[in-house]
Amino acid sequence: MNQMTSDNLRSAFGGESQARTRYNIWGDVAEKDGFKNVKRLFDATSDAEKIHATLHFKALKDVSGDFAVTSMAGFGINSTSDNLEAAKNGEIFESTQMYPSFIAVAEMQGEKEAVRAMKFASAAEKVHAERYQEAKEAVDAGKDLDVEKIYVCPTCGYITFEEEDKCPICGCPGNKFMEY
């Protein structure tokens, strides 16, 4: 594997792994604040980030060495609203800046598996940002997120609040989605 793509995959793996843990912690804060559905959203997104990290890890041909930290943005424990804002901004950064540049490098270097993994993650991150914005609007209005169920695609990490026939990102059958 080309070094630059390998480095980018390692960086993306680290970022997704950190986001997963951060979302677990922030979910606990949301639950303590009385927002049980926001906690479920954080938990679902945490599992989606694990899917992204796993895709990146599998795309690496050489998994030795240290993983780089992509960003320190969004660290710390704040109010549920502030945590949702930081989570949304992290997802926007990944989908609009980090992944597009990583994908361009991987495409230039002919790393098809890396391109696939990062395209899935980038598309799912855009949706994660939208879900966090919905949750933030509810919390800022003093309400919990108004959802019955949260579904996560096990292939790409796409998140939806409604049953779907198939994932709009990767085509995975909707009956394989994880329910929260």
UniProtKB/TrEMBL annotation:
Protein name: Rubrerythrin
Pfam families: Rubrerythrin
Sequence ranges assigned to domain Ferritin-like diiron in this UniProt record: 1-143
Biological source species: Peptoniphilus gorbachii
All copies of domain Rubredoxin-like, residue ranges: 148-180
